[in-house]
Amino acid sequence: MDADVKDVLAVEVTTAQWTDSEVLAGRLEQIDDPIGHVRADGAYDTHGVYTAAGERGAEVTISPREHAVPWTPDHPRTQALAAIAAQGLLAWKQAVG
């Protein structure tokens, strides 16, 4: 969904056997235009999602899962965890939109 104009950009119909993160790459492939930013909840906090979004050149903001650990120092997940530790989850969510 384009959060600015509230347009649906891609749809994937699945069964309960698929997780949100497993089908994100297929949804991104449906979008022809450049993707500026992928924002998602903790269900999308996987290496595959960060990779798929990164391959499209998108900035990624995903709420880390509970008990998440840092990845590489420059990774968005690591940066999110540091910001959450410094300012709290609610403040971080408000800061990143």
How many strands, what sense, and barrel or not for the largest sheet? 2 strands, parallel
Shape: globular
Average pLDDT reading:
89
Question: DSSP helix count?
Answer: 4
Structural class: mainly alpha
What is the H-and-E element order? Answer: HEHEHH
Please indicate the percent range of residues in DSSP E strands (runs of 2 or more).
5-15%
Radius of gyration: 14 Å
- Report helical residue fraction: 40-55%
- Domain tally: 1
Order of strands across the main sheet: 1-2
Low-pLDDT stretches: none
Termini, distance in Å?
Answer: 15 Å
The total of beta strands comes to 2
Structure overview:
By secondary structure, this protein is mainly α. The chain has helices spanning 20-29, 47-55, 76-87, 89-96, and strands at 37-40, 59-62. The protein has a two-stranded parallel ribbon. Helix 2 links the parallel strand 1 (37-40) and strand 2. The radius of gyration is 14 Å and the shape is globular.
Core attributes:
single chain; 97 residues; 2 strands
Short description:
With 97 residues, the protein is mainly alpha-helical. Helices cover 40% and strands 8% of the residues. It has one domain.
Any chance you could write out the topology, listing elements then pairs?
Blueprint: H1 20-29, E1 37-40, H2 47-55, E2 59-62, H3 76-87, H4 89-96
Parallel strand pairs: 1-2
Helix pairs in contact: 1-2, 3-4
